[in-house]
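Worked example

This section walks through a single chain of length 219. The input is the sequence exactly as stored; nothing has been trimmed or padded.
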Amino acid sequence: MPSIEQLLPFIVATCIFAFIPGPGMLYMSVQTMARGAKAGWLSSAGFHLAAYVHILAAAFGVTALLQALPVLFAAFKLAGAAYLIWMGMKMLFAGRSRPAADALPPEQSIRQAFRDSLTVELLNPKTALFYLAFLPQFTSPDASAPIWLQIVALGTFANLTFSATDAVCILFSSRLAVMASPSHRITRIGRQIGGIVFIAMGMHIALKSSLNGGSTTGP
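Given that input, the structure is written out below as tokens.
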């Protein structure tokens, strides 16, 4: 594995990334508030399972295709944006038309939270490109392990670190949900806010993709 001189900056950078609030934390908070703590945990599991797919892709160089083919990158971004908007519309109108508790059977709702988060993250090319750009910087061709194995090990550490901050986010959101649960009105408002957030996230991604022309260097 890489030397301690390479690993220490990696650990510091990973911890900084993990504690910066981002769309993933917001997504899990919304799922937890709308569907309960179990849905939040399964949303986190979906995100991190998809992240391992991206890590393996980075390890074997598959995501380099996204850099070589900007059209493919743009297509992935637009697909992910459309899925977020679709989820937001479902949550928004379900919250307006009937009580949140009746929108979906509990188990179906929870399973859907996992499927949604898995799909969103798999359709997120920036996660793939993040791992492709970030992890190789801390590998060494002189290490005893091959480069691909170093990337997998570093990616696993990063993913576990991100999981720790997700746990804090879910526990906090779950507590807020418990405080709001006696009021159906507050619950409906929470679902509507969540739906608006998902729609806004999807539209933001789609707009950035259109303005950047599918460039992989956009923010």
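What to look for: The chain is about 80% helix and 0% strand.
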